[in-house]
């Protein structure tokens, strides 16, 4: 049975003059880190490889630095690894997001707890 209680959905997106980093690119980079391949990461997310490249390039353009080092296939195959800046940004994003969600949940409890219980009864 689905949870019908009132709850927050807190997400983090970073902007310059445009959106440049958010949950999708963070998930993609985390999978690249694990799978060592942008193609494999995209497939694991049921995403077209071309879309993964587009998302990556847009993020890099907005941020002003590369997130991945990639090598094309050959006898030993291609691969991808996060750049040093990419690793540091991903770690900072995840730490900030974790703390923001914890604080957001505490504020939600402070302001909305009486309403959360009512949505369960009246649904």
Question: In what order do the strands lie side by side in the largest sheet?
Answer: 1-2
Low-confidence stretches: none
What proportion strand? 5-15%
Helical segment tally? 4
The backbone outline, from C-alpha atoms, is: elongated
Q: What helical percentage do the residues reach?
A: 55-70%
First and last CA, distance: 13 Å
CA-based gyration radius: 19 Å
Return the string of H and E elements. Answer: EEHHHEEH
Return the average pLDDT rounded to an integer.
90
Structural class: mainly alpha
**E-strand count:** 4
Please outline the major beta sheet: 2 strands, antiparallel
Task: Please give a structural write-up.
- This protein is mainly alpha-helical and 123 residues long.
- Helix content is 60%, strand content 11%.
- It is built from 4 helices and 4 strands.
- A two-stranded antiparallel sheet has the order 1-2. The chain has a two-stranded antiparallel sheet with strand order 3-4.
- β1 and β2 (19-21) form a beta hairpin.
- The longest helix is centred in the last third of the chain and has 39 residues, at 84-122.
- The protein is elongated, with a radius of gyration of 19 Å.
- The mean pLDDT is 90.
């Amino acid at each position: 049975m689905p949870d019908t209680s009132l709850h927050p959905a807190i997400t983090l997106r970073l902007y310059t003059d445009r959106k440049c980093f958010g949950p999708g690119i963070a998930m993609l980079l985390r999978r690249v880190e694990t799978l060592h391949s942008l193609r494999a990461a995209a497939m694991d997310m049921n995403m077209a490889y071309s879309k993964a490249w587009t998302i990556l390039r847009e993020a890099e353009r907005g941020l002003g630095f590369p997130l991945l080092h990639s090598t094309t296939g050959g006898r030993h195959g291609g691969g991808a690894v996060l750049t040093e800046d990419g690793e540091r940004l991903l770690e900072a994003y995840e730490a900030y997001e974790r703390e923001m969600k914890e604080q957001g949940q505490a504020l939600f409890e402070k302001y909305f707890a009486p309403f959360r219980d009512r949505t369960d009864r009246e649904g």
